[in-house]
Write a structure and sequence with these properties.
Keywords: Lipid-binding. By secondary structure, this protein is of the alpha/beta class. The chain folds into 2 domains: 2-153, Rossmann fold, CATH 3.40.50; 154-281, Hypothetical Protein Tm841, Chain: A,domain 3, CATH 3.30.1180.10. The chain has 11 helices and 13 strands. It has helices spanning 16-22, 45-54, 66-78, 96-107, 121-136, 141-151, 165-169, 175-183, 207-222, 238-251, 264-270; strands at 2-9, 25-27, 30-33, 36-39, 59-62, 81-88, 112-116, 156-160, 186-192, 198-205, 228-234, 256-261, 275-281. The strands form 3 sheets. A 6-stranded mixed β-sheet has the order 10-9-8-13-11-12, with helices on both faces. β9 and β10 (198-205) form a beta hairpin.
Length: 284
């Protein structure tokens, strides 16, 4: 019998090599553009922004159905896994967690565990990756959940938005503030606060200054002298992400630094050109 299966939703944005190596299952959120709905995992960012221009110029996102979770949970159990840990984006910003809970309740299986990452994008992804590492080591579900509880507050996410237009479209910032911020080249640094809600960590003039501000947070964390797993994430800004990763690799040799692209669900809210860092101590 296999021991513990690890499942995440599509906003974790781990690369395919990590997903395949650790046998992580992914339940997709959906992107709604005009009258059409697309599973996030079927869209690249290039596809997404192309369709956005062709169809309506705006998009929304929606959580997976309860049935989508049921299908994955049943399939995993049928493969011989004894336990499931299903890790998802913050319940404060999406109904995804609630859909997973409903699926668990319908199956009436006490060995299915739903975990709220309190985050999204690589905040969720890095926690899932850690859980998958522990599962491969043979830890059971309760042991993994205990470790996730201690790692979650240590996982920091900072995201720099290149334009305020998409936040304005989604109702997360007023029109006057969006115009004012654009004129002044304000670059808000977003993060997830302790309640699992997207919040403004700082507002900085120019993207370079915003990056330097985020670097200070990473430097603070690395002052502990502990090795870290560091994710450079971006939305359609691969060249910039590569540059950031190279700079950090030179400065912090020996740290595990990788590049990940956040997909259309996150892109809906932050737009193209966004970049950020996510990091936590590892091994933990």
């Amino acid at each position: 019998m296999k021991k513990t299966a690890i499942i995440m939703d599509s906003t974790g944005y781990l690369t395919n090599d990590i997903i395949e190596e650790h046998d992580i299952r992914v339940v997709t959120l959906n992107v709604n553009i005009g009258d059409e709905t697309f599973p996030e995992i079927d869209l690249t960012n290039r596809d997404f922004f192309g369709k956005l221009e062709q169809l309506s110029g705006s998009s929304t996102t929606s959580q997976p159905s309860v049935g989508a979770f049921l299908e994955v949970y049943k399939a995993v159990l049928a493969e011989g896994y004894e336990e499931i840990i299903s890790i998802h984006l913050s319940e404060k910003i999406s109904g995804t967690y609630a859909s997973a809970i409903m699926a668990k309740d319908l199956l009436e299986n006490p060995h299915i565990h739903i975990f709220d990452s309190g985050s999204s994008a690589l905040g969720l992804g890095l926690l899932t990756w850690a859980a998958a590492d522990w599962a491969r080591e043979g830890l059971n579900a309760q042991e993994i959940l205990g470790k996730l509880e201690t790692l979650r507050p240590l996982c920091e996410l900072y995201f720099i938005v290149d334009t305020l237009e998409y936040l304005h479209r989604g109702g997360r910032i007023g029109g006057a503030s969006a115009l004012f911020g654009t004129l002044l080249q304000i670059k808000p640094i977003l993060y997830f606060n302790t309640e699992g809600i997207i919040d403004v960590f700082d507002k900085v003039r120019s993207k370079n200054r915003a990056l330097q501000r985020v670097y200070k947070e990473l430097e603070r964390a690395l002052a502990s002298q502990k090795p870290h797993r560091i994710a450079v994430m971006h939305v359609g800004a691969e060249a910039e992400a590569v540059s950031i990763a190279e700079e950090l690799s030179q400065k912090y040799q020996g740290q595990d630094i990788r590049i990940f692209e956040a997909g259309p669900v996150i892109a809906t809210h932050v737009g193209p050109g966004a970049v950020g860092l996510v990091f936590h101590p590892w091994p933990h």
